[in-house]
Amino acid sequence: MSKQFEGQNIIEGYHIEVEQVLSNVKYNMYQFQNVHPYDIKCPVCLNVYLDPISCDSCMNHFCKECYQQKQSTKCPLCSHQCETRKAFPLLRQLLSQLKIRCHHFDQGKASIMNIGCQVIVDYDAYDKHVKQCDYSEEVCGLVDGKLQCNVIKFKKDIQNHRTYECNYRQCECCHCHQFFSSFKLQMHELKCEEALTRCPKCHTQIKIKDQSSHLLICDQNIEKCIYCSGEYAWHQLLIHQNECPQREVCCVGCSQKFTLSVYYIHQTNCPKFPQICPSCNQKVTREQFENHNFKDCLIYIKSQHDQEIQNLIQKHKQLEIELGKKDTIIKFSNRFKDPDIFLNLDKTNALVKQTANKKKDRFVLFNNPISEQRKQWKFKCSQVKSSWYAVGITELSTLHSQKKYQDIGHGSYLVSSNGTMYNNHKDDQNSKESDFRINTNDIIIIIVDLEADLLILYNTTQNLSLEIEAAFEGKDFYGCACLRTAGDEIQIIQ
Ligand SMILES: [Zn+2]
Ligand SMILES: [Zn+2]
Ligand SMILES: [Zn+2]
Ligand SMILES: [Zn+2]
Ligand SMILES: [Zn+2]
Ligand SMILES: [Zn+2]
Ligand SMILES: [Zn+2]
Ligand SMILES: [Zn+2]
Predict the structure, then answer these.
(1) Domain span including residue 15
(2) Residue of 146, 291, 364, 447 with fewest CB within 10 Å of its CB?
(3) pLDDT of 131-183, one tens digit each?
(4) Ligand 4 center to 139 CA (angstroms)
(5) Ligand closest to the CA atom of residue 61
């Protein structure tokens, strides 16, 4: 090997230094087998050309990498700003005649088995060989969760490592047939629920997971009775203890304590022991039962019935309260409304969706008439499009007949957005102007005074109020809105 370095000893030290700086150097001088490499070296890295190019101006050659790595675009030899071109065919031919020994040739020298890669290849095939060389190193890389095998092996040995040696290779548990990383398998097998063990009592072979359920039925799992100290298999013990003659019990009549065997006799003559009268089902003591007669039976039965009636009355009251609660929630009615008015899902918002310009009043009424529980409510007038947007109360009949509002008897008590009042029975309040107004987004509170025959309206947004005299006369009136124009919208606020 040293013979090949003849004639270049002077620069040897220098080129090793450069080699260490350039990380991409792929081969060393001593790898070349058949040609003296002295004259085909790159003047920058002083190594045999790697993928050479030439300077357009001075015709000198450089490794492509060496030329590209310097800061300026000037040629390192002639210092001209110049283009580069392909290497001369002669140089490429010269290079392709080189034979190179793979640089893995001393890999694994330390081990007796491995003497490194012995391959010698053509210059042009060198790149390809190094990439697939058996002696290139590879990290194993098998993983288990976040852990990874970082063992480094030669390419030729890596498959063997992954299959037979790696701590991370998947191995099957011989009991449950699940797969685990090799280093976890041993731990798993020690506690695998499918593994077999022997019952410590009867020595039958059972699975570890069945151990506790087996002990419940194992005939050899003997325990002592806490009362008589008799020995019983575990599954018979509970039954025995329940009926063990030595068990201490308390008489349900006189509260004295006895062993079970004595108690059986005692309960047949204890004067305090409870009996059930076959006629009235009443529980009485033995001594009371001797004097218990037909009259006692009747008294007891009556008291039972009275109690049941009380319970029913209580339940009924409860139901009425709940119904009352539901009834006080005020909503619009899907039945009592003009077909052009549309309600939202919870029936608290009404909107006119008619686009043809038919001039008519469109009523929407509440789902229940005004009552003691439903005599006050709040509107938000979300969209007021015309002066005939009105709120108030009306009778059901209004829905189905055209009314003349200038004459009394039209069935409604209303005020419209421009302040006109409409009064069912009182001429001087019917079709008459007032100071009341309703604009878009105003909040209106309406209170019906059933005692005083009065309808009171507050516009809390504009701070206006209005009283309309009414005559309820026991008729059903409904809270209502009277809308007219497409886009008119009103909402009940609870
Ligand atoms: Zn170079
Ligand atoms: Zn090799
Ligand atoms: Zn591994
Ligand atoms: Zn297992
Ligand atoms: Zn057993
Ligand atoms: Zn016992
Ligand atoms: Zn007793
Ligand atoms: Zn009785």
Answers:
(1) 2-101
(2) 146
(3) 888 888 899 999 999 999 999 998 989 999 999 999 999 999 999 999 999 99
(4) 30
(5) 1
